[in-house]
Design brief:
The protein is α+β, with helices and mostly antiparallel strands. Helices cover 34% and strands 9% of the residues.
Length: 253
């Protein structure tokens, strides 16, 4: 018979070896797990929430709240400043959708567009009586609500440009016929154009416009081309005003 003491010693050595191998395997597994990329099974790590962006990187989006400390509901001033430095037609179409909280004003007379903020104003496209605009910023002589030669609003037009209007130039009551500035099709984002072209009424108006304006360059269009061009824009506005779905702006201030 084998020596009992030798058997016990051999068994103990085997157990020690197995424990050492198990410990090594555990360390290897832990190391692999810590270097693995987060997956959708761990939403708290792999979150795509824009609000979780690193500090210092501002998230760009359409405003969803009124500016703090203002008597009227207007967008935040910092966002308005960036908006009025350029022309953003995609932003305008989204803000003019029905149900948005922004204050609407309506022009009382024809006027040349003027942007007191110094940005683009699409000169040449006059503001017409009955044109609908959105109030962006109140302009007052001393910061208070008052009527005066310099008091008024910076506003957003349907074409995506800002303009400055004065008290007496507008009314808050919708007129019988609400007008809009001309939307420049080529300035709209690609995703928005694709979404609009999928609507049968807009596609039909676009085809009619192409036929009427074929062979003419800017400044040399016929009366028929102008009529069909306006009808095309009217159809886009009608679709947005009816609550038609459009994508969020691809370009934001």
């Amino acid at each position: 018979m084998p020596d009992e003491t030798a058997l016990l010693t051999g068994r103990n050595e085997a157990l020690k070896t197995m424990r050492a191998i198990t410990a090594i395997l555990l360390l290897v597994c832990v190391g692999c797990g810590s270097s693995a990329r987060p997956t959708a099974e761990h939403p708290e790590v792999a979150s795509n929430d824009p609000s979780a962006a690193p500090a210092g990187k501002a998230r760009r989006a359409l405003p969803d709240h009124c500016a703090h400390g203002k008597r009227e509901c207007v967008p935040p001033p910092g966002w308005v400043k960036r908006l009025c430095e350029d022309v953003y037609p995609d932003v305008a179409l989204n803000m003019f959708k029905p149900g948005t909280r922004w204050k609407r004003l309506y022009m009382l007379a024809r006027a040349e567009p003027f942007n007191a903020s110094g940005g683009a104003s699409l000169l040449g496209d006059k503001m017409e009586r009955g044109e609908e605009v959105i109030a962006l910023k109140r302009r007052d002589n001393n910061g208070e609500m008052q009527v005066g030669d310099n008091a008024g609003y910076d506003v957003l037009r349907w074409n995506g440009a800002c303009a400055t209007i004065h008290d007496g130039d507008f009314t808050r009551d919708p007129p019988r016929e609400i007008l809009h500035s001309k939307i420049e099709w080529r300035r709209l984002g690609l995703d928005l154009r694709k979404a609009l072209e999928m609507q049968p009424s807009i596609a039909a108006a676009q085809n009619a416009r192409r036929k009427a304006c074929h062979g003419f360059s800017i400044g040399e269009v016929t009366k028929d081309c102008e009529v069909y061009d306006r009808a095309f824009v009217d159809e886009i506005v009608r679709y947005v005003q009816s609550g038609g779905a459009i994508p969020s702006p691809s370009r934001l201030p």
